[in-house]
Amino acid sequence: MLDNVIMLVFAMISIALLLNLYRLLRGPSIPDRILALDTMYINSIALIILYGLLMESPLYFEAALLIAMLGFVSTVAVCKFLLRGDIIE
Amino acid sequence: MEHWIEWVVAFFLLLGGSFVLIGSIGLTRMPDFFMRLHGPTKATTLGMGGILLGSIFFFYTHGETSVHELLITIFLLITAPISAHMLIKTALHYKLKTIDKTTGKENIHAAQQKQHDRKPLP
Hints:
The complex is a heterodimer of chains A (about 90) and B (about 120). By secondary structure, chain A is an all-alpha fold. Chain A contains three helices and no strands. Chain A has one domain (about 1-85). Helices cover about 85% and strands about 0% of the residues of chain A. With about 120 residues, chain B is mainly α. Chain B has one domain (about 5-115). In chain B, about 75% of the residues lie in helices and about 0% in strands. Chain B has helices at about 5-30, 35, 40-60, 70-95, 105-115. The interface between A and B is large, with 48 and 51 residues. Chain A: Keywords: Antiport, Cell membrane, Ion transport, Membrane, Transmembrane, Transmembrane helix, Transport. Chain A: Pfam families: MrpF_PhaF (PF04066). Chain A: It is found in: Cell membrane.
């Protein structure tokens, strides 16, 4: 039963990623695109964790943690650059 | 694996997956940026919490308890408001349009003025 549930959640998150991709491509303004990228990295963390559940291996959490940290730093860096014209003043 | 633990894991995974999907639907369907920000910052963070909670239960029954999931959950809960704050400041800087139904527009103008008056660092 759990395998079917994991496949269903895989499908849900893939649809969510496609919706984010639509907003990333269409987004009328730059903050919209940054927000879509931010959501996409969070959803990809969910995908990696689900793959780890499917393979029954706790190895994938390191990758998820790495993506979480780098994604947050990149979002803040892009926002800072747009706000001030420089990342570290 | 015990029977009822499997149900608990399935429940948390489905809850998390639905919240992630709802957050992305909100990101796609809402009319202006100030409304769009609500979906990913609230619903998606809660959905990630659900998925990671399911993962904690799953690996607990396999005898491999790890703190990595808790670490990811806490990290996401801390960083989501910060990135939302930076995004809303960027939106104020760009003077994005709002639709008529958006509430709190006077706050938007006040914050824009405050940010505009900010002096550059020496």
